[in-house]
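Lab channel / #folding
Pinned by the channel admin:
"Please post every new chain as: sequence first, then the structure tokens as a reply. Keep commentary short and put observations after the output so the thread stays searchable."

First post following the new format, from NK:
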Amino acid sequence: MSSPAPVFVPIEPRPSPTRTEGLTPWLRRNLFGSTGNTVSTLIMLGLALWWLPGLFQWGVTAAITAPDADRCQAARGVGACWGVITEKWRFIIFGRYPFEEQWRPEVATLAMVLLLVASCIRTFWRPWLVALWVAVLALFFALMGGGVLGLEAVPTDRWGGLPLTIMLATLSIVLAFPLSILVALGRRSNLPAISTLCTVYVELIRGVPLISVLFMASFMFPLFMPPGTSIDVLLRVLVGITLFAAAYMAEIVRGGLQSIPKGQFEAADSLGLSYWQAHRKIILPQALATVVPGIMNNFISIFKDTSLVTIVSLYELTGAMGLALNSDANWRPFKIEAYLFIAAVYFIFCFAMSRYSLWIENQLSRSRNR
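Reply from TO:
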């Protein structure tokens, strides 16, 4: 009589001898993983315990939030004067825009920010998004400039604050990105004239600071125009920032193009694709995915560099803050609090862009691992 066939009985899963998830493993892995990490963590904790109580007292406990200059003067050196923000926030946010009409830049800025958020969500990546961009930009300039639909006309030299910062950064990024791709492709072109022209443009722009570009666009460019011809200073500044940003971004894109293996170009040729078809469908998607961190870093740099337009008498967020405090001697001593306020505004936008960059990188990483 044969014995019965053995039956496989799985062993019950046993718990891991050490935890790999949760707060304790995270602390062990990131803060106390080695002797050097442990020493650094303890030093930083000691500095935080020594410094944070005084900062908390200055910024919260002893701070003055009421717009009272006398109380702020009495609390100098002891507590922060957030009353300067309460008193001057409209001037800082909207600059010299007429007070009665400040609802217009508020609506225009909100529409622009919502458009940017929608453009970052994959659900809205449809052909009609281009039409939405055109409509929102038309709405923005109609509200800011006025002169239509019964709105009071406001010259561009009265625009300022956060609306000007967002508009300059957004349009500079949108215009510089396609221009940078064309310049990067031009530098790699086999046609000497195109390659030389793109190389001269990139090296010339990268060889001077942005302040010089803005100065030339604002003060020297009109000298080459025909007599009686005048171009709005805001347009000249926008063109200057766009050309400056495109030169730097073109080198980032060119680095991505150089990282593509030669076999990808040969595969495109073997499929019978034209130059533009190969780059649009095969080369550029891979190249741009490779340099996402560099591109986003350039976007963040553009957003912060808009603060330099103050030298041509366009008072964006930083310039409006300086104008608001320098014109009032009672609040002039409290620039630290005002700078902390606009630093928080810049941080919110830049941090959002960096988080979006990480999201894009994660999406690309998943697609590569499939």
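NK: The beta strands are 315-316.
TO: also worth noting, DSSP finds 15 helices and one strand in the chain.
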